Structures are given as structure tokens and as C-alpha cells.
Amino acid sequence: MKYFFEYHHWIGAVQLWVENDGQPIATEIPHDRRHINVTIGNKRVITINLPCVVDVNTKGEVQRGKLFNVRLNELKSGKTFDRSSNHIMEKLVAKWMRKDLVKHPFVFYCLDCDTPVISSINCKRIRDMPSEFWADFMDYWHCHKPDMEPHQKGHHVAASETLLHRYNNPLNPAVGEIMLSDSFIYINKDWIPEKFIYDEELVRSRSCNTVIGSFTKEGSVRIGKWNLRAEIGGFLDVFDPSNYVLYQIYNELKAHSIRLFHLKGDDKRYIIWVFGIGSCIQFDKSRMLNNCLKILYRDGKPAESEKNQNIAELKVEENSALINFIQHLESVNRQLPEELRLLNEWKVSYISCE
After folding, report:
1. Same domain, yes or no, for 229 and 278?
2. Does 215 share its domain with 251?
3. N or C end of the chain, less CB within 10 A?
4. What are 54-104's pLDDT values in tens digits?
5. Is the separation of the CB atoms in 14 and 72 below 8 Å?
6. Based on the domain organization, do 113 and 209 belong to the same domain?
7. Beta carbons of 161 and 148 less than 8 angstroms apart
8. How far apart are CA 92 and CA 97, in angstroms?
9. Cα–Cα distance between 83 and 49 in angstroms, integer?
10. How do residues 191-231 score in pLDDT, each as one tens digit?
């Protein structure tokens, strides 16, 4: 028997679904109001931990096909949900950023051969890039791009040249500097060349010859975080490749509030629809997943009706990351009760932002 609940804290609602083959079901909420006991038939009882204290007077129950549905409202505490800003989106912060690295000694190892490639010992400076796709947002950051007219003379020419250099100069790390985006680590190619093999546009680990990165068009070394294992302050961690796709979606959500996406890989295309930002979910006895995106997805190109909507086309350059992202959606979809797995032609899934 499967059960699944979804908690939307911004509206204070919990939805619980229990798979049921027709046996009578009874529910009871104990005095602590943080659990619900579900009795199936005459003897089988399961206790489900709830994500919040619930109001027992708001319980609504209905049998829908093979699913028994319980709706509960969170017990009001007198506090209201602050809608002055998007607190949920503000919490979506990538890991292995400057705030993580400046606090403790760190080492990044090649994921394949476990050889250290970058460490804090000889690192002089760490900076976060303004965005994974900072160049794409230049039009939003500057209302006027400085230019230089042929008739400009004297100090005006010098001033214009300074502005041109400031705004058009490539964003390159210096020797000994680490620049961090959501999914990549950037370093100067002349900093630690003994750690890498530079193979035309590819960057390989010198110890095992595994491709771990590439060169940017400006000539910097760009290493995918998912190709590394981090040791920060004595704690080991890895980077989920699907986050590369997830963070691209974040950027579009934050910048343009787009919810419909066309993901393009090397040979696969998918349409995903994002909503329910910030949901908490749990399957059976698995741990609760917080700050989830609810995602409807299907493979293929946009339908004619979708082309007229505000849809973002995302070209996923790392095809393995797209495969990993879709595999994650499929895995979660299989864990849902069968009748919740599809909504018309869309598959239903969730992905945690933590």
C-alpha cells in the first residue's frame, strides 16, 4: 500500500492520498495533531507523520477511484504568510559557492580518480559570478551600453575607452582566483596547469585523462561541479548532475517568471511545466523532501497551442545532465500512487530544491 502527502505551507494545506483497493478506511488524529492514524479494514493501522500541526475540525475525506484522499488545514498560529517578497525563490541557492568556501579549508577532487585538483592552500581569491548566464542579462543590468563615436576627442575619448574596457572586457579569473557559478568552477588556465591536460577545447584530469571541463570562449578553464568531489571543512560532498538543468530553470523563474520550458539535448526534447514552488512531499516511510518544484513533463516538441505561450527554450549543453534530470523525474513519478502519475498527457513529478 502506498501513501503520499503534499504540504503547501503558503496556503496552510496538507493533501494525503492513500492507495486503497476498496476496503473501508478510518482515520484518527491524536492529541498532538502531528500524526494521523489510518486504519484499513478491521486491523491494519499505519501512522503517518504530518509536516505541521493540523486543525482536526477541517478534515475532509473522499474516496476517488482507488485513492482515499484526506485534506487537512494547518492549525492557525496567528502568523500570516509574508507575501511582500518571494521567500521561497530566495532560498534557492546553489552549493559550493563563495559563502561555503571562505569559511573552511577545501579541496576539490576529480570524481573519477580522486586526485586533488583545486584546493584552498594556494587560492588567493574567491568570487561568485553574478549569474550562471551573466552575459545574457546585460540588457537588464545596463540601460545604455557605452560606445565611442569617431568624432569624440580629448578626455571624452579616454573616458569612452575606459567604459568600453570596463563593460566589454571578458569576465576572466586571475591566476590564483576561483570564480563560481551555479554549476561550474572557473580558473585561469595558467594557474595550476600541472593538474590538467589541455586537449584543444577540452580539459582533462592529468591523473586519469577523464574530461572534467572545457575552455570558455574567453580562454578560461570551466570545470563542471558534477565532475568533482568536494571536501569542505572535513565534510565530503558531491554535486548532482541534474542540478545543472535545475539551476537553468531557476534563473528563468527568477528573471522572467516563466513556468513553461522546452528542454533541448543532443537528441532528446522535453516540455516541462513548473508550479507548486516550495511544496513539501513524502512517500511512504521515505524522508520528507522540502522546497520542491512540482513538475509536469512529457517528451517531444511544443504543441502548436504552446508556441503562442511564454515558453523558454533551454539548450542543455551537457547532455548527461539532462538525462540525469529526466531520470530523476521518472524515479519520483514511479513512487507516486498510480492514479497520481498522469495528468492528461503529462507525467507528474517533483524535484527538491535543497
Report:
1. no
2. no
3. C
4. 999 999 999 988 899 999 999 987 666 565 555 556 666 789 999 999 999
5. yes
6. yes
7. yes
8. 12
9. 28
10. 999 999 999 999 999 999 999 999 999 999 999 999 999 99
